[in-house]
Every structure is written in C-alpha cells, then in structure tokens.
C-alpha cells in the first residue's frame, strides 16, 4: 500500500503539471477543473494510503528497537509536515505565482521519484512481515462470544479464583472456558479503551485553520507585503512547529529527559493550548472585526494573529506526535495498523466537520472565517472535548504486558534436552561396545 500511495502521489503531480501547462497555452475552465480534480483525488488517496501504512511498515523494520528510538522516529515523522510547509509557505510569499507553481511541481516530482527509486533499490533488504491475525475478525469474534454468553462455561470453583466477577468480554478467556487466550481478550479491551481518546485528534482538527493557499500577486486588486502574506498563509504556525520540533529533538530529549511529562499529560496540555488559541481568535475578532468595506476579498492580516498562530504551532507538537506515540505504544502489535488508520480517520472527520462548519455562518472571506459566532461555536466544542478528554485520561488504564514465566514449557524443554542427552550417551556406549 505504501508503494501504491507513492505512485498515486506521483501521478497526481504529473497530471496537475500537465493541467497547468495546458491551461497556460489554451485557457479552458473545463480542462483545468478536470485535471485538477483528478490530481486532487489521486493525491488524497495516495497520501492516505502512504500515511496509514508507513508508520507500521517502518516500525516493522525496527524490530527490537528501544522505546527511545521509536519515539524519535515518530517525532521526526511528525516534524516532516511543518518543516516542508514552512519552506513552501515562505517561498509562496517570496516568489511570483508564474515561477512558484512550476518550481514546486518540479521539486515534488523529484521527491516522489526519489522515494520510488530508493524503494526499488533497497526493497530486498526490507522486512515484509505478514499479518498473522486479522484484528477486525478477532474483535468481531470476541464481541459475538460476549453477546451470546452471560456466564462462564467453566463453573468449577477450583479452576479460577477472582474477587470480582468477570466482565462479559472476560468470559471469552480460556480460563473461563472461552475459545480465546487471555492476551487476545486483553487486546480487544485495549482497543476499546483507546478509541475514546482519539477525541484528542478530533479536537485538534476541528479547531485547526483550513486556509486557502494564498500566492503573492494572485489577485490583481490584492497586493500583500511579505508579513501580510505570511499571516494570511499561516506561515507562523508552521514555523513555530518547526522550531519547536528541532528544540525538542536536539535539546529537550537529551538535556531534560527526566523532566518530560507522560504522553497523556502532554496531550492534556495540547488540548488546553488548543482552547486558548481559539479563544484568542475569538477575542481578536470581537474587538477588531474585518472591515465591512472590504470588497476585494482581502485576507484578514491583523498582526495579533501571529500570537494565535504561535499557539497553533505549539498545539501541533503537543497533540499530533504525542497522540501518534500513544497509539503506537498502546496498540496490540497486530492491531497497530488499524489503530493508526483510525487515528488518521478521526483527524479526517474533524477536518470534514471543520470545513462544513463555515457555511452556516456566512464566511465569505476565503482565507479565514472572520465571524466571531463561528469561533464562539468552535470554542464551546473544543472546551467540551477538553473536559471529556481530561476525564478519559484520568481514568485510562495503561496496558502493561507482563512477561510471565511459563513453568511447564521450561520443564518440558529441560526433560527434552535430558532425554536427547541420554539417548546420545546410550548410542555412544553401544558404539564403543561394538568396537571392542
């Protein structure tokens, strides 16, 4: 799926470039919208296929790696987005559109081609680990068994001793007469405990700003300075995330390792920053709304938005890598791919809601919705998400996998080796007797 996603992204870039070239010589809205629509669909499908599988695939290559190494990989993977966005948004505000589009398309083609060539050269050295268990099938089987059975199949008091009555899901364990191992049932329980915590990524996506990409000189009546263009294109958001990631990975991780809070505390802090960022925009638009005489659809470029974008950059580094790290760390091995997919899906649902929330409030400005009612509703929603997440995080039970010693296996192995040694000794004695 990773290579297919990369091919789709490559095809999207080629088709988009062809549409731009054709439109330059023969202007046709039908051709332009057709090529751009196909390119956009391929890009979204390819990006989702790539992102949903690259985490699991890369972790499979790091078999036996330490938790610190996996944590570093997840943070660098998350940092790639703001680093690239910072570079492109800066170029967008410095380079004219007629040069920016072909340059950015050329860089994208080179980058995707490099990935395809690298995979072809090194695929024989990569591990291809097949999924031994179907996680969806296991979840359905455990739920069906819990639905059909209200009491343990094994009723002997000598078989188990529990202070608390087992739950319906626990009845599927083999010690209660069920067809599943204890590990399988605990995996399913962990899956359902983790699902509500995906509200963190939903909250992030709901509060995020989905700006239209603005290009300097795109509109004849709108002439922007670099600062105004940077504010309108959310440049300071990406720049803050980039600097924060570099500071975190190169300084905090090594110099203040003992002071780093737990994953859920980082996520909780990210939710608080998320709410404060929205609240700052609400206050700004209430005090200083967009000029009603704006007839050129000019972007809202109040300098105080830099503070809001700074908070947006902080919430990214607090929520996105921490939520992904939590998902990877707590997910059962055979459910990791499904959980990462649900992590992306929860973010997609939040963005879908975020985009469609603008229409009821008459957000005419395509760069940023300037309706304070819009931000008031988002503040209320994010505050509800914050309270719910704090409650869920407080009562979340971490999955701790205990490496229990299998005494029977050790004894069987010991006697097996003893019998093999005894047989070898008898064979030597017999051969020695025959030689004499």
From TrEMBL:
Gene3D superfamilies for the chain: MFS general substrate transporter like domains
Keyword GTP-binding: no
Designated name of the protein: Uncharacterized protein
Source organism (scientific name): Amphimedon queenslandica
Alphabetical GO biological process terms: peptide transport
Lineage, uppermost ranks: Eukaryota, Metazoa, Porifera, Demospongiae, Heteroscleromorpha
Transmembrane segments: 7-25, 31-50, 62-87, 99-122, 195-215, 235-255, 267-284, 304-324, 336-353, 373-393
Keywords in alphabetical order: Membrane, Peptide transport, Protein transport, Transmembrane, Transmembrane helix, Transport
InterPro entries: MFS_trans_sf
